[in-house]
Amino acid sequence: MGRLRVPGWLLDPLSREIVWRVVADSESAEVIRAIRLLYVAEQGVTVVIDRESIRQRMRELILRLGAPDRAGGTVRIYVERLLAAADELPDGEPKFAGLLRTAFDLAQDRSQDGADPVQENRAAIYALGIVTGHVYVEWAAGRVLDAQLRKAVGRHMGRATVRGRADWVRHYAVSAALAIWSSENASDAAGLLKEELDAGPGGSGFSFSDLLANRAGTTLAMAATADPDSARRIQEFLAGPWHLDQVFPEAADLPEGFSDAQIEEYFGGIGGARYQQMIDEIEARVSTTYAGKITGSGRK
């Protein structure tokens, strides 16, 4: 966007005026109050917002902060295929595995017919996010659902499980969708924010197992959309026979249900030494998945 030189004598009053105008605007002030994490890096800026405090404006805010992916029409094709498969699949883990296989089998077929494998995988991940994660994923993908499809999605929501847990499926699918809409770091940060909020009063508690589910989903998304070769490898793998350990590592033994005070006491808080040991353990487990091996998961 270029640079603008501002004289020192003007900088202070100008910055005060800008801040006043932002805060004076009711919608801007509402957004500012909802910010829970702001991270600035050379690659860009990651902002994590508490959805509960701005629920009524969420759709407008998402459209402002990042335009939705213009994949709605293609995503709808995948959603319809997934819903048809869901009607035939038994609840539980068979539904999770079957829907994952169905999505990437379709992506492989369409790619072999000449479609871009990266874009097909993006559509598959968005569709999985909508059908097994949360209907709000549609906001990132573009217009996908009509009233009939929305009702069908609601009928199947929460009926797929992984390692006996429906909430892990949601974490996995939504994190994957967030990763391709925004960035890997933003998706992981959103997952961490959710766990921190859960650790507060009235929450279900901080869960390292949930963080593993988030990270596994993010890693799948990164591998599936990194480049055409990686995209095709993920398609071939997920469309064929695979073992659950290759997709979603064991998570039941990871600590969960901690309050803020307990996180501070037992793990030294977010970023503490024992906390980082748990994060390293999560990374090590995710690195053993097929997607983790492609991406080299285990970030330093």
Written account of the structure:
- The structure is a single chain.
- With 300 residues, the protein is mainly α.
- The protein has two domains: 8-65, no CATH class; 72-295, no CATH class.
- It has 15 helices and four strands.
- The protein has helices at residues 8-24, 26-34, 58-65, 72-88, 93-112, 117-133, 138-141, 147-156, 166-181, 184-198, 208-225, 228-239, 260-267, 273-286, 290-295, and strands at residues 35-41, 44-49, 206-207, 256-258.
- The strands form two sheets. The chain has a two-stranded antiparallel ribbon with strand order 1-2.
- α4 packs across α5 (93-112), α4 (72-88) packs across α8 (147-156) and α9 runs antiparallel to α10 (184-198).
- It is globular, with a radius of gyration of 20 Å.
- Residues 184-203 have low confidence and may be disordered.
In short:
By secondary structure, this protein is mainly alpha-helical.
Given the helix and strand composition, which structural class is it?
mainly alpha
- Globally, the shape reads globular
Number of strands: 4
Contiguous uncertain segments of 5+ residues:
184-203
In spatial order, strands of the major sheet run 1-2
Helicity, as a percent range: 55-70%
In N-to-C order, the SSE pattern is HHEEHHHHHHHHEHHEHHH
Number of helices: 15
Number of domains: 2
Calculate the terminal CA-CA distance, rounded to whole Å.
32 Å
- Rg from Cα: 20 Å
Give the rounded overall mean pLDDT: 81
Q: Biggest β-sheet: count, sense, barrel? A: 2 strands, antiparallel
Percent of residues in β-strands:
5-15%
